[in-house]
Task: structure prediction
Amino acid sequence: MESAVELAAPGRKVTTLSMLTPSQQAAIRKIPAEAEAVVVPIEASRPSTIFTGQERFDVEQARIFRHYPVPVTLSALLPEPGMVVAHEGYGVPLLISRTRDGEIKAFINACQHKGAKLLEDCEVRRQGRLSCPYHAWTYGIDGSLVGVARSEAFLNLDKEERRLAELEARQWGGVVYVKLDRDGPADWSQLSEDVRDDFLALGIPDSHVYGRKTFDLKANWKLVLEPFLEGYHVQRLHAASIGKLFQDAPTCVDRFGCNIRQVSGRIGYEPSMLDADPDENVHKLVTHAYTAFPNCVVVTSQYYTSVMILMPREVGRTVVEYFMITPEAATTPKAEEVFERSYRLILDVFGNEDFRAAEISQSGLSAGVPATTVYCGLEANIVHYYEALERLL
Ligand code: FES
Ligand SMILES: [Fe+2]
Result:
């Protein structure tokens, strides 16, 4: 799925081992050689109702997705001041903007006159002002109400009170987190500083968003997440695509609550390969896969990184926003060709393999079979993730 050509481009071309954090480097050095990998068997299961029950879904919504800030997009999508995008993935109409001083802000996408959406699609725009389609009230992208048509016709209209409704937002290693519920201050305690530092070392905030695509899946969000937490399916579900690039076992895992970092050697990996060439692209040797609290997946590939936000909408429905990011925009036709081919292939692998697996599992579980899902030692991360999640529920 990836070409062996080096991309001739200035700036950060590749990530080398020495560009990673000490913690990432230590994790990579713990990956055993393919021949020495051991899998520890486990006994674990979960009731199917965690994927099919309305009550469980409602508790997750209240205690996780509305209680804590959640990932909504990438700061790389808005690289310059004056950029703004609407976002609907969680079912809450949002506007995310980068103000003149470079700050990322989040608002409810609703005019303070009568609630009309200011932006009706989710295209990225570069505009200093937002004008309501209904009666043309105008807002700055910092949320201030700057213009009211026929303002003399309003008695005692306080423009300060009619600013856009702002939500607490933060950039976390290039991922924009927003607290969707406006009651009470945000609790940032579940986000991992280790993961943030890793994402900075991977260059996520300064990346170029090559492509993004939204999927609307008939599956519970945890079924969509599961394949990104286990290596068991890779050689099987992906037998015809990327399966041959990965081994079953040699993985090093670090856990920070609901945040999980997995690093695995690609096929034929030997620890001695790490020090053979200090300028080598580390993504050629190992793959990083992260779950960032609670529903953001990051997977590295040789020339690009995939970021996915898995947004629960109903018990059996999840909206996924997929981003393919690259160190920079393609500067040569060769690079463009590699990116273009990678984008098509990765959408095919995730869309037609991993996401399809989630949908066909939902189908059986919704029919009550099996009554409990069962996990093996190659799926232990799923169980650890669920244990961390259950502590918050
Ligand atoms: S609803 Fe926006 S100006 Fe009237
Ligand atoms: Fe997969």
The mean pLDDT is 93. The longest helix spans residues 333-366. The chain has two domains: 17-65+191-392, 70-178. The CA atoms of residues 158 and 220 lie 44 Å apart.
